[in-house]
Amino acid sequence: MRADLELIYDWVPQGAHVLDLACGDGALLESLARDKGVTGYGLEIDPEGITSCVARGVSVIEHNLDDGLASFCDHSYDQVIMTQALQALRRPDKMLDEMLRVAEEGIITFPNFAYWRHRVYLGLRGYMPVSKSLPHAWYDTPNIHLSTFNDFEHLCREKGLVIVDRAVGVGERRGHWTSKWWPNLFGEIAIFRVRRR
Amino acid sequence: MLSMPDSDTLAFADQPTGSVGLVTPHIAQFDTPLALACGKVLPEYELIYETYGTLNAERSNAVLICHALSGHHHAAGYHSRDDRKPGWWDSHIGPGKSIDTNRFFVVSLNNLGGCHGSTGPVSHNPESGRQWGPDFPMVTVSDWVASQARLADHLGIERWAAAIGGSLGGMQVLQWTITYPERVANAVVIAATPRLSAQNIAFNEVARQAIRSDPEFFGGWYADHDTVPKRGLKLARMVGHITYLSEDAMGSKFGRDLRSDDLNFGFDVEFQVESYLRYQGDAFSTAFDANTYLLMTKALDYFDPAALADGDLAKALAPAQCPFLIVSFTTDWRFPPARSRELVDALIRAGKSVSYANIESPHGHDAFLLPEPRYQALFSAFMNRTARELGLEEIR
Q: What InterPro entries does the record tag this protein with (chain A) (predicted)?
């Protein structure tokens, strides 16, 4: 499993009822259901991802996250998970509100634009960063709202959200000690666990 | 239990690969009266059905196929070597196909009130001594499901590995999960809706009026006059057919193409689309019974499980126990994706296991009948998963 997914796996309690936004091929939900008795639904828009979920026996709903979560009731889930999708949404801030409307807790991961390699790319070379976590060219990227570790913390403060946990991932592994101390500089993937106050 | 066909399919030379081959329909007779939703009782009846594949020793690999408005029991394979076309869902039923007959034992029947061999308006009415005709009682989706459950009993099938249907067939599957939740292990509901819209009912009413206003209809007793309301049925089919295709599909198939080079300034067939609709209508008007068509459209109109649960679809679906696969098609405007989504949202609210996909297709409502790579991959994935969950092995 991807580094950020491994961490999230640990954060989801036994028997939780979860919503996984942009659940991809359903690997996370499958292992959560199998090992921890977790229930819930994945939302996905990619046809291959959806077929893969169905093959795994993961309940998946074809859904465009930009349409919001109107069909999901208030406080109907323990957690809403959204990995690597925040930056591709039309209104990430509204989605954050939606996530914490339907669940107690939200887990969000996104590529940290302030990662030192990205800074070097832009600052020294003068090009839009292309990396493992940002693999697209500027003209065809789905990532229309790139942000940094600090940006997200700022948004949470503005919304009065409680950051229960935060972590970083670098490449395939979890963060090195440097990224723990200076996540905005050394964290490639930002991972947050937030709650409404 | 009467005869128990293990498999009534026969391979024949140069049959297409993936075909179940030659099939022979069976008839099941039921002597126990069936109380219908309309208040009437059907004292006895017959159901015609076909089976494909082999029922396993545990009888756990049976799949029920529910047909749509003008469908019937002949869903796959061929009745004779000379058949030009296979059954109506041959692209999805057969060895190696989405509903893999190497694993599943498929049961496909003609519904009560039909005109393809099950008891219906063209059958003999034992009480009156003549054809049922318009006296045949109104049948609803619930009535069909009740009769299908008796067919399952007759075949010794306690629980379907999956109940599967498109359009009106999907509504029967939904009803199965509500009425007999413990008898359905999986449900596949394709291009369906939890209830018809006013527009859907309106189109059905136009079709009915076309039939009923045909001078050859004789109040439904046309058989007594040795005639059929061909013109009415033809019109009904023409208007129905328009709703089965998308605007784009019609446009790309026919555009404004003319049959000849010049305009005739008359009312004969000029545009290709007119010719196509007339052809479809004509073919249907001699192959389908008008009274059956009237009954089937009413069954569609009446279907509304939420109405029996204070208008709450989630509450109506509360008894369901199985995983659902719900599929819609992007250009279907008869039962658009939003209707499937309504169903999906209700299932989510009810806390059911459900997956939903909206398949990109130019073919409108008819897309559910056709092969399409994504549709087939998804359908196969769900059925393979079903086979795995139930521990079904390849039989042949």
A: Methionine_synth_MetW, SAM-dependent_MTases_sf
Q: Which helix (H) or strand (E) holds A158?
A: helix A149-159
CA dihedral B256, B257, B260, B265 (to 10 degrees): -10
Q: What is the pLDDT of residue B1?
A: 38
pLDDT tens digit sequence for B20-73: 999 999 999 999 999 999 999 999 999 999 999 999 999 999 999 999 999 999
Q: What is the pLDDT of residues B70-81, one digit of tens each?
A: 999 999 999 999
Q: Distance (Å) from the C-alpha of residue B385 to the closest C-alpha of chain A?
A: 6
DSSP code of B2? Answer: -
Q: Where does the pLDDT of residue B3 fall: very low under 50, low under 70, confident under 90, or very high at 90 and above?
A: very low
pLDDT in tens, A56-94: 999 999 999 999 999 899 999 999 999 999 999 999 999
Place of tokens 């569609």: B300
* DSSP output for B119-162: SSTTSB-TTTSSB-GGGSPP--HHHHHHHHHHHHHHTT-SSBSE
Return the structure tokens found at B325. Answer: 């696969």
Please tell me which residue of chain B has the smallest CA distance to A17.
Answer: B351
Contact B348 A47 (CB under 8 A): no
**B225 in active site:** no
The confidence score (pLDDT) of residue A191 equals 92
Contact B139, B33 (CB under 8 A): no
Of B348, B353, B385, the CB nearest to A55: B385
- Judge residue B156's burial from the number of C-beta atoms within 10 Å of its C-beta, 0-12 exposed, 13-18 middle, 19 or more buried: exposed
* Chain B CA closest to residue A74: B349
pLDDT for B2 equals 40
Contact status, residue B141 vs residue B299, Cβ threshold 8 Å: yes
Query: Does the annotation mark B365 as catalytic?
Result: yes
B154 near B383, Cβ under 8 Å?
Answer: no
Per CB-CB distance under 8 Å, the chain A contacts of B349 are 73
| Contacts B389 to A, Cβ<8 Å | 57
Residue B394 pLDDT grade (very low, low, confident, very high; cuts 50, 70, 90): confident
Contact flag B349-A61 (C-beta cutoff 8 Å):
no
Which site among B330, B355, B374, B379 would you substitute to test the A interface, given the most A Cβ atoms closer than 10 Å to its Cβ? B355
Task: Catalytic residue, from B147, B246, B365, B366: name it.
Answer: B365
What was the ipTM of the complex prediction?
0.93
